[in-house]
């Protein structure tokens, strides 16, 4: 553990004194910003777009869209009109009403954002899907949620098995020369002539907003329902954690098919009236750096897997671009390896701030704030208004430095409202009275920093020692030849489990037994003898979810020759 390795950079941050605010903050102090104090009713889309379109931000850039073949810019005033138009199409042609599930299944394009905001304006519950989902994944989600409408593209429409989905009334296609039938409608044709005026459906704070199916790292994805009340926390964390200020140009790299791509790719930035960059197309170090350079991105939110790929791409790529606009960098989705923070500090001149949260929590809960010292490998401290503890399996609070179940006191504003069609699953998170039990294993140190160890199911018991896979993986990637590593426990008659590491090498390295041995010794001397992998297997790439998480359950199933379970969210 390295103490205070990276002290905060001086400057004006939205949250300057964490300890003080933590003592005094109550969530109702955060609600002052929104107009519902006059109306009693809310709509997130109004607060995120129309409110700004009607004030001094009307002509401020809300969206920079960037794709190798399309580059467009929209102000808040533009987005108000265009989302109204989309809302009118959904209402008049799709008969969408409050509470209906409207799915969006398309690559990131401006139309995706118009449609999503338009649907929310009608009080509908939006369900975003990754464009890469295949037929079964699409069917499961539309069936489970009884979706009424879906918006898609000509390339993807064949993956919607509409004859097996009785609740699905309308399929809107966004594209040219769309052949209409009684179910299929040409979205753009109606959109072009739709009115720019739309009456917003005012809803209650507990009314449905978005239905996100989880990433599927540990099993079958669950439909997590969030309500409009979550905007309080989207807004407040965009201020505190993203540190968004009036002049910032913000880029979140996540797809809206994953919760980060909505909570922090749409809601947080627009609720705070920020300029938001959306980049379409696939990951490529050149295109990513080019995006930062082109728009002068100041605040950048991405994921460890992307940072690791940029790191593996090497500094010669980084040096081709001007990245000096960056002032604040954040990460989410997986543990952030210390090596990645060191690299980031070197090449960008900034610390990368890890943030911890889950689909179910709706917004960030435990974070490294700009005003705090960063301990490398720690996910930071609970935000003001958030009480986090480590519980044993009986629900007792453990003292510092003991590994256990990471749990949060119930009742933060963006907590999930339910799991769709699965009350039993919902209840399973709340077996210890007032605590939400996350399923992640962690410990807290004496200074209140939290340290992620792994999913509870992934923690390895080897020769009587509990080893978190994250520690081993982080040590492994410090070895120059290792690009990425996934570590599992493999059953062993003597040791209970042994540590097995799956390793993807940096381009140019050869897969040899000598290299395996060098890697083993590196972990043994750098971490601990019992933490060194007894088995190492090289693989071209690790199985990952679409949101970039290493799927250890798949590695384990491969290893044991067991069925791999639901693979709908796995990358190609
Ligand atoms: P499923 O619940 O379907 O198995 P998932 O848990 O991967 O999938 P998400 O809700 O997208 O789905 O991911 C949340 C999980 O990601 C957390 O429970 C945690 O295990 C991991 N995670 C997120 N952020 C961090 C972080 N900063 N450090 C460590 N782990 C993180
Ligand atoms: Mg999960």
TrEMBL record:
<dbReference type="InterPro" id="IPR000873">
    <property type="entry name" value="AMP-dep_synth/lig_dom"/>
</dbReference>
<feature type="domain" description="AMP-binding enzyme C-terminal">
    <location>
        <begin position="471"/>
        <end position="549"/>
    </location>
</feature>
<dbReference type="InterPro" id="IPR045851">
    <property type="entry name" value="AMP-bd_C_sf"/>
</dbReference>
<dbReference type="Pfam" id="PF13193">
    <property type="entry name" value="AMP-binding_C"/>
</dbReference>
<dbReference type="InterPro" id="IPR042099">
    <property type="entry name" value="ANL_N_sf"/>
</dbReference>
<keyword id="KW-0007">Acetylation</keyword>
<dbReference type="GO" id="GO:0003987">
    <property type="term" value="F:acetate-CoA ligase activity"/>
</dbReference>
<keyword id="KW-0436">Ligase</keyword>
<dbReference type="Pfam" id="PF00501">
    <property type="entry name" value="AMP-binding"/>
</dbReference>
<feature type="domain" description="AMP-dependent synthetase/ligase">
    <location>
        <begin position="50"/>
        <end position="416"/>
    </location>
</feature>
<dbReference type="InterPro" id="IPR020845">
    <property type="entry name" value="AMP-binding_CS"/>
</dbReference>
<keyword id="KW-0067">ATP-binding</keyword>
<dbReference type="InterPro" id="IPR025110">
    <property type="entry name" value="AMP-bd_C"/>
</dbReference>
<protein>
    <recommendedName>
        <fullName>acetate--CoA ligase</fullName>
        <ecNumber>6.2.1.1</ecNumber>
    </recommendedName>
</protein>
<keyword id="KW-0547">Nucleotide-binding</keyword>
């Amino acid at each position: 553990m390295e103490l205070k390795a990276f002290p905060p950079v001086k400057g004006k941050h939205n949250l300057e004194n964490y300890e003080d605010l933590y003592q005094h903050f109550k969530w109702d102090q955060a609600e002052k910003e929104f107009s519902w104090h006059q109306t009693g009713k809310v709509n997130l889309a109004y607060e995120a777009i129309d409110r700004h379109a009607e004030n001094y931000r009307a002509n401020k850039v809300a969206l920079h869209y960037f794709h190798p073949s399309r580059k467009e810019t929209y102000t808040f005033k533009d987005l108000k009109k265009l989302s109204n138009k989309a809302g009118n199409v959904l209402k008049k042609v799709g008969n969408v009403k409050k509470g209906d599930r409207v799915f969006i299944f398309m690559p990131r394009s401006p139309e995706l954002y118009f449609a999503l905001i338009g649907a929310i304006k009608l009080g509908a519950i939006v369900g975003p899907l990754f464009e890469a989902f295949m037929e079964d994944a699409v069917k499961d989600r539309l069936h489970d949620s009884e979706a009424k409408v879906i918006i898609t593209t000509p390339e993807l429409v064949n993956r919607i098995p509409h004859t097996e989905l009785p609740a699905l009334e309308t399929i809107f296609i966004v594209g040219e020369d769309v052949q209409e039938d009684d179910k299929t409608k040409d979205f753009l044709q109606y959109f072009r002539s739709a009115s720019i005026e739309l009456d917003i459906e005012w809803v209650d704070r507990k009314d449905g907003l978005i239905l996100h199916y989880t990433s599927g790292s540990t099993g079958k994805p669950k439909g997590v329902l969030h309500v409009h009340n979550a905007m309080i926390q989207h807004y407040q964390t965009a201020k505190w954690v993203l540190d968004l200020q009036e002049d910032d140009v913000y880029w979140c790299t996540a797809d809206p098919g994953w919760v980060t791509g909505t909570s922090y790719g749409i809601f947080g930035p627009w609720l705070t009236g920020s300029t938001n960059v959306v980049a379409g197309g696939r990951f490529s170090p050149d295109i990513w750096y080019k995006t930062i350079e082109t728009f002068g991105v100041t605040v950048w939110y991405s994921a460890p897997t992307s940072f690791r790929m940029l790191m593996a791409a090497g500094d010669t790529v980084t040096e081709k671009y001007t990245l000096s606009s960056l002032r604040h960098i954040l990460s989410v989705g997986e543990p952030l390896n210390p090596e990645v923070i060191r690299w980031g500090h070197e090449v960008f001149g900034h610390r990368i701030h890890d943030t911890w949260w889950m689909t179910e929590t709706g917004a960030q809960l435990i974070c490294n704030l700009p005003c705090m010292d960063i301990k490398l490998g720690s996910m930071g401290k609970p935000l003001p208004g958030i009480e986090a503890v480590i519980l044993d399996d009986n629900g007792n609070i453990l003292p510092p430095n003991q590994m256990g179940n990471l749990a949060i006191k119930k009742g933060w504003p963006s907590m999930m409202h339910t799991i769709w069609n699965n009350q039993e699953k919902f209840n399973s998170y709340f077996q210890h009275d007032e605590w939400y039990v996350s399923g992640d294993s962690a410990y807290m140190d004496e200074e209140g920093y939290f340290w992620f160890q792994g999913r509870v199911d992934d923690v390895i018991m080897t020769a009587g020692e509990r080893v978190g896979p994250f520690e081993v993986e982080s040590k492994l990637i410090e070895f120059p030849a290792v690009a990425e590593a996934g570590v599992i426990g493999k059953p062993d008659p003597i040791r209970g489990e042994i540590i097995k590491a799956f390793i993807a090498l940096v381009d140019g390295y050869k897969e040899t037994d000598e290299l395996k041995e060098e890697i083993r010794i590196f972990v043994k001397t750098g971490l601990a003898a019992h933490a060194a992998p007894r088995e190492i297997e090289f693989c071209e790439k690790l199985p990952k979810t679409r949101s970039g998480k290493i799927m250890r359950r798949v590695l384990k199933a491969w290893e044991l020759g067991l069925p791999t379970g639901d693979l709908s969210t796995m990358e190609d």
